[in-house]
């Protein structure tokens, strides 16, 4: 198993090992976990970056005029094209977007994977205590009605990790820290990670994008600062 990490920055390095760059107003850590030691032999990336057809798919997904204003307004901070490139997503992939919320990344993923791929947007039921989340899920469910390559699932934390097919990519953005919080149970993290690994194909990727706390920060900062060491 190989573990890669990077920090999203204006100049976002694909697959950069243990490299940290300064970012304002906030630093966002992205951690990609390969599902097996052979991952580098099977990913569809050339040494110099994404293959041309993948690059075109990523650019088209970001430029899609049907994306809502609520999504495009976040692009400056979220740097979607660079982030998608880092994730390794490509046309035809099977992807899980865990805690998809209103579907910022779900819509991008759906555009990239196309009709031969599928996106499983998972909405953990514990989050339904938040009114804004209920509205967001309803919005994403409406999107799925007209996009057959998207399935929206609501389930308990671990139950939501069951998929009808093996995945190329498991994605959780800005919510991995929430798994440690009381309102989520908290979740048994070892069991959660094991279930993710089991859901992935050999060579698949487990990507965690979250806000990073200061080194040595107490475990409960996930509750107060919504960051994780």
Can you put this structure into words, describing what you see?
With 229 residues, this protein is α/β, with parallel strands linked by helices. It contains 9 helices and 9 strands. The protein has a 7-stranded mixed sheet with strand order 1-2-9-8-5-6-7. A two-stranded antiparallel sheet has the order 3-4. α2 runs antiparallel to α5. It is globular and about 45 Å long. 37% of the residues are buried. The N terminus is likely disordered.
> What coarse outline follows from CA principal-axis ratios?
globular
Q: Could you spell the SSE succession in H and E letters?
A: EEHEEHHHHEHEHEEHEH
Instruction: Count all strands and give the number.
Output: 9
Number of helices: 9
Bin the helical content. Answer: 25-40%
Strand content: 15-25%
Uncertain regions spanning at least 5 consecutive residues: 1-47
Q: Structural class per helix/strand content?
A: alpha/beta
Mean of all residue-level pLDDT scores:
82
Q: How far is it from the N-terminal to the C-terminal residue, by CA?
A: 22 Å
The value of Rg in angstroms is 17 Å
Q: Largest beta sheet: what is the strand line-up?
A: 1-2-9-8-5-6-7
Give the biggest sheet. 7 strands, mixed
């Amino acid at each position: 198993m190989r573990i890669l990490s990077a920090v999203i920055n204006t100049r976002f390095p694909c697959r950069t090992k243990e490299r940290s760059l300064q970012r304002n107003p906030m630093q966002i850590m992205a951690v990609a976990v390969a599902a097996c030691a052979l991952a580098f032999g099977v990913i569809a990336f050339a040494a110099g970056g994404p293959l041309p057809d993948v690059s075109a798919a990523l650019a088209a997904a970001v430029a899609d005029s049907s994306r809502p204003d609520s999504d495009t307004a976040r692009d400056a901070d979220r740097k979607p094209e660079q982030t998608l490139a880092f994730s390794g997503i490509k046309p035809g992939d099977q992807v899980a977007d865990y805690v998809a919320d209103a579907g910022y990344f779900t819509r991008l993923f759906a555009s990239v994977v196309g009709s031969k791929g599928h996106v499983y947007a998972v909405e953990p039921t514990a989050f339904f205590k938040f009114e804004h989340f209920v509205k967001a899920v309803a919005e994403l469910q409406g999107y799925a009605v007209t996009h057959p390559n998207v399935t929206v699932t609501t389930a308990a934390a671990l139950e939501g990790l069951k998929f009808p097919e093996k995945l190329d990519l498991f994605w959780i953005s800005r919510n991995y820290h929430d798994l440690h919080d009381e309102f989520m149970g908290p979740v048994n993290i070892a069991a959660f990670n094991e279930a993710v690994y089991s859901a992935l194909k050999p060579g698949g990727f487990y990507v965690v994008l979250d806000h990073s706390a200061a080194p040595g920060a107490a475990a409960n900062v996930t509750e107060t600062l919504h960051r994780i060491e």
